[in-house]
Amino acid sequence: MKIADFVDKPQRLTSGHRLCAGCPEAIIARQVLLATDKPVVVANATGCFEVSTTVYPYTAWAVPWIHTAFENAAATVAGVESAYRVLKRTGKVTEDIRFVTFGGDGGTYDIGLQALSGAVERGHNFLYVCFNNEAYMNTGIQRSGATSLGAQTTTCPAGTCIPGKKEFPKDLTRIIIAHDIPYAAQASPHNWKDLITKAQKGFEVEGPAFINTISPCPRGWRYDSADSIQIAKLAVETCVWPLYEFENGEYELTAESKRIAEGKKEKKPVIDYLKTQGRFRHLLKEEWTPVIEDIQKNLDERWERLLKLVSL
Amino acid sequence: MELMAVNGDTAIAYAWKQVNPDVVAAYPITPQTIIVEAFSDYVADGEVDTEYVCSESEHSAMTICIGASAAGARCATATASAGLALMWEMLYVAASMRTPLVMAVANRALSGPINIHCDHSDSMGARDSGWVQLYGENVQEAYDQSIMAFRIAEHPDIQLPVMTGLDGFIITHAIENLQALPDDVVKDFVGEFKPKYPLLDVKNPVTMGPFDNFDWYFEHKYQQVEAMNRVPKVVNQVFDDFEKISGRRYNVVEPYMTDDADYVVMAIGSTAGTLKAAVDELRAEGMKAGSVKLRMFRPFPEKEILEVLDGKKAVAVMDRAISFGSSGPVFPEVRSAMLDAKDAPRVVNYIYGLGGRDVPPADIKNVFRQLAAGESEKINFMGVRV
Ligand SMILES: Cc1ncc(C[n+]2csc(CCOP(=O)(O)OP(=O)(O)O)c2C)c(N)n1
Ligand code: SF4
Q1: Are the CB atoms for A46 and A70 separated by under 8 Å?
Q2: Which residues of A touch B208 (CB under 8 A)?
Q3: Residue A201 vs residues A89, A93, A209: alpha-carbon distances, Å
Q4: pLDDT below 50 — which residues of chain A?
Q5: Which residue lies with its CA nearest to atom 7 of ligand 1?
Q6: Which of residues 151-210 of B touch A (CB under 8 A)?
Q7: What is the biggest distance separating any 2 CA atoms in chain A, rounded to whole angstroms?
Q8: Sheet harboring B102-107: ordered strands across?
Q9: Rounded Cα–Cα distance for residues A115 and A130 (Å)
Q10: Per the CB < 8 Å rule, is A79 touching B212?
């Protein structure tokens, strides 16, 4: 796979959307959409990505696109895909179409989990991509089930008694894998090759596929817009966001995460990552050092657990 | 025509079998469950081409129908009570996205306390969501309306979802005679679904359900208003066409013995049948009684109501639901219609039958007697222990 192979492909998400400068959601979507040459239909949950790409009467979409509500992107695509099944069977649709859904972590980890679980359990043929920016960004940076322990959001601010979010993020990828889904993965926009390869697999597998992507948010994480990709890379290098996939019932580490596990790349301390973002700035005060230690300990445990699952 | 003995739910499943929708998505809830069970038998036996999605909730069932309809499929679903309440957010989306869905609502009370029996709180709660609402009186009407609903919803001038109400247990579970139409007649009647801008037309991509600001939202709502305004004409056309194939005449407002009546009682659904029986008995006793069945609640047929009720001495509107802090939901609409009458009767409200409370003919006759004696309050609660 060479980047040159992709430059001439048609833009399915065009320029002119209104996402913040440096928002990786558009980058991830573009990478995902490059992963198939088949016609695609996109379903979207409410959130930054939806409101920014479709401000009526404009649209940034050059492919069919549908949004119905916040918590049901998976049910929306399930409906579209059900229509496709029957219309294909009865000969009213002839193209070989792929279906992809985009949702934020709020619309996926929290309010949309039921619809996603139902759609995966029923085996609809679609790829679900979660943009994990670890908070409800569209409504102004409130905590979600994906927010890191110790991170500040507008509903879990750091005060004198509480150092930001009190709970560790839930591990949604494992929850989805527990459905025995045909394909699931974690990916990051900094490694386009890894992400596109995973999206290719997700598009081609029979049945549902799920890709959870880390999607740093300059607004909500408080860093310079130019640093998004660097921060996504650091998330992987510190094992905050391990890259792996689950295919044919097996876990496998990929890219940098695989190299870290093999001892070919250094596993950086989480502090390197925390330092880059305003949402963790308060943790650098001495009184909250134990919080950083907690985060490191939890990450180490999660990493060790993942290593036991993979076949190195 | 085939004569069958079935309950209302089975009749609807049978109608759907004949229509053969592309996608049915549903979730069980009493007293609707028989519909999805009976329909799943047809699917299991390959009697329909339908993609039948057993969703994990009503919210998703409605969403799946919206997605499938937007994609270009003919869709149906059914629910009741709490299930309809869980769909509430998506009812608005279905109407605003102009997805011509058909939904049977087995009318049932809402919690709490939890109660599985008939009243109209569920569909009346969905009153403002932009759906066309029809109500049937018996098993035959439940069947007939299920077929006609596709034609109304999918009409190019309308493109709005249609809800057909049938009283929980009273119609859903009671076995009655049904004159079913032949399969090919139903098939011809509903015709083929021709979606306007199907999402699956990948050569002509559309963006559906975008973000609307104050610069366009109001205009889009107004388009829904205009579509609703076109409904009565289309409904009447469909009723005419249906009469041709079935011999059965439907109207949005159906008067019984009202021409020379002094006192008129109005209701929706199965109670309209009991009303006719009461009218017959009262006529035998010499009272100039009449009744009105309201078949279509949304859009509200103001003109027809006015025509039927103008010049009567007194009118009682029976409501099987309540808007707490106000009255029953049908009452204010009828009253407001009568403001344009030259010779307006007194219009009063009877709240009745909540949570499946029985509606005996004697109680209905009592309503007429109270009306005639001028003893009715503005709002009355039929048979309640206070
Ligand atoms: C039922 C419902 N509850 C709440 C909202 C308000 N809302 C819209 S988007 C959003 C948060 C989106 O967050 P996320 O899914 O993480 O996406 P992001 O904007 O961060 O990319 C919320 C709470 C809604 N639209 N619908
Ligand atoms: S707030 Fe964050 S997630 Fe939303 S558009 Fe801006 S950068 Fe992207």
Answers
A1: yes
A2: 64-67
A3: 24, 24, 8
A4: none
A5: A139
A6: 199-202, 205-210
A7: 67
A8: B51-54, B23-26, B75-79, B102-107, B162-167, B132-135, B296-298
A9: 14
A10: no
- Helix, strand, coil tally for chain B in percent (to 5): 40, 20, 40
Rounded to whole angstroms, the Cα distance separating A24 from A219 reads 12
Best of B69, B99, B199 to disrupt the A interface by mutation (most A CBs within 10 Å)? B199
Chain B neighbors of A55, CB-CB under 8 A: 210-211, 213
β-pair partners for A183: A209, A247
* Beta-bridge mates of residue B79: B105
Residue type, B307: E
Rounded Cα–Cα distance for residues B221 and B207 (Å): 18
Contact A82 B64 (CB under 8 A): yes
- Min Cα distance B152 → chain A (Å) is 21
Rounded Cα distance, B339 and A170, in Å: 60
**Ligand of minimum distance to the alpha carbon of A134:** 1
Name the helix (H) or strand (E) containing A210.
strand A209-214
Q: CA B109 to CA B120: how far, in whole Å?
A: 7
Q: Is A266 exposed, middle or buried (0-12, 13-18, 19+ CB in 10 A)?
A: exposed
Q: ∠ CA B169-B173-B178 to the nearest 5 degrees?
A: 125
What are the angstrom distances between the C-alpha of A210 and each of B208, B233, B251?
Answer: 23, 48, 51
Bridge partners (DSSP) of residue A104 are A131
Contacts of A47 in chain B (CB under 8 A): none
Nearest to B97 by CA among B203, B216, B223: B223
Q: Whose C-alpha lies nearest to ligand 1, atom 20?
A: A137
Report the amino acid identity of residue B154: E
Whether A296 and chain B come into contact, CB under 8 Å, resolves to: no
Name all residues whose Cβ lies below 6 A of ligand 1: A 46-49, 70-71, 104-107, 131, 133, 136-139, 144
Q: Give the whole-angstrom CA distance, residue B357 versus residue B363.
A: 12
Q: How far is the CA of A46 from the centre of ligand 1 (A)?
A: 6
Q: Torsion angle of alpha carbons B140, B142, B145, B150, nearest 10°? A: -130
Whole-number Å distance between alpha carbons of A45 and A67: 6
pLDDT in tens, A230-274: 999 999 999 999 999 999 999 999 999 999 999 999 999 999 999
Phi-psi region of A123 (alpha: psi -120 to 50; beta: other; left: phi over 0): left
Would you call the peptide bond into B353 cis, given omega within 30 degrees of 0 as the criterion?
A: no
As a whole number of Å, the end-to-end CA separation of chain A is: 24
Tens digit of pLDDT at every position of chain B (386 positions):
899 999 999 999 999 999 999 999 999 999 999 999 999 999 999 999 999 999 999 999 999 999 999 999 999 999 999 999 999 999 999 999 999 999 999 999 999 999 999 999 999 999 999 999 999 999 999 999 999 999 999 999 999 999 999 999 999 999 999 999 999 999 999 999 999 999 999 999 999 999 999 999 999 999 999 999 999 999 999 999 999 999 999 999 999 999 999 999 999 999 999 999 999 999 999 999 999 999 999 999 999 999 999 999 999 999 999 999 999 999 999 999 999 999 999 999 999 999 999 999 999 999 999 999 999 999 999 999 99
Q: Tell me the two tokens of residue B77.
A: 């679903």
CA dihedral over B338, B344, B348, B352, signed as positive or negative: negative
Nearest atom in ligand 1 to A45's CA: 15
Pair type for strands B289-294 and A244-247 = unpaired
